[in-house]
Specification:
Layout lengths: L12 H4 L9 E7 L2 H5 L15 E3 L7 H11 L3 H6 L14 E5 L2 H9 L5 H9 L2 H5 L4 H20 L3 E7 L1
Antiparallel strand pairs: 1-2, 1-4, 3-4
Helix pairs in contact: 3-5, 5-8, 6-8
Protein name: DUF1877 family protein
C-alpha cells in the first residue's frame, strides 16, 4: 500500500510532485568534500556508490521531511527552523531531471555524529512516532538499524571533513 505524504506547504515543488514515501525508488546518502564534487554523481549510472563515494541507500527516508523531522528531534529546533537552513535539501543539480542531488545540513551531520550509540534505540522510537514514518508503518527496530548506519555515515563525514548529500533518483 502506498500512503501519500501529508501535504506540507514548505516542501519544494521538485520534491512534492507525485511524492509518496514508496514512490521514490532510490535515495542514496553519501559523503563528498563539497557541492561541485557531489554534483558529479548525477552523471554516474548507478549513483554515488558506483562512483566511489561512501554511500548508504535508504529507501523511504526522504531528505526533506523525514530527515527534517529527525533533525528537529535531535536539536529540539522546530521543523520550520530546520527547513529554513540554507543547506536543508538545497538542490545542487537540476531538480527537474530523473535524478538530482540535494544537500543535507551540516547540523544534522554533526548532531548525528555526536549521538551516543546508547541513545539510538530511543531516538528511533521517537522518530518512528512522526506522522510520515508512523503512517508508513515503519518498524522501530528497522529504524534503529537505519539510524545506526546513518550515524556511522555522519561520523565518517565528520572524520573526513566531508558533507552529506542525497542523490534522489525517480
Amino acid at each position: 500500500m502506498i500512503i501519500p505524504v501529508r501535504p506540507d506547504p514548505h516542501v519544494p515543488r521538485y520534491l512534492a510532485l507525485g511524492a509518496t514515501i514508496r514512490a521514490v525508488p532510490l535515495i542514496d546518502y553519501f559523503i563528498a568534500v563539497d557541492d561541485p564534487t557531489a554534483a558529479t554523481t548525477i552523471d554516474v549510472a548507478g549513483g554515488p556508490g558506483v562512483a566511489g563515494f561512501e554511500t548508504l541507500l535508504l529507501k523511504g527516508i526522504d531528505p526533506y521531511i523525514t530527515l527534517g523531522r529527525l533533525e528537529s528531534i535531535l536539536t529540539s529546533h522546530s521543523y520550520d527552523e530546520i527547513t529554513d537552513d540554507p543547506r536543508h535539501c538545497r538542490p545542487i543539480t537540476d531538480p527537474e531531471g530523473d535524478a538530482f542531488v540535494v544537500t543535507v545540513t551540516d547540523t544534522l551531520r554533526d548532531t548525528l555524529a555526536a549521538v551516543g550509540d546508547d541513545r539510538l534505540a530511543d531516538l528511533a522510537r521517537r522518530w518512528a512516532q512522526t506522522d510520515e514514518l508512523r503512517l508508513d508503518g515503519v518498524d522501530v527496530s528497522d529504524l534503529a538499524e537505519t539510524l545506526t548506519l546513518l550515524t556511522a555515515l555522519a561520523r565518517r563525514a565528520v572524520e573526513t571533513d566531508g558533507h552529506l548529500y542525497c542523490r534522489w533518483a525517480l
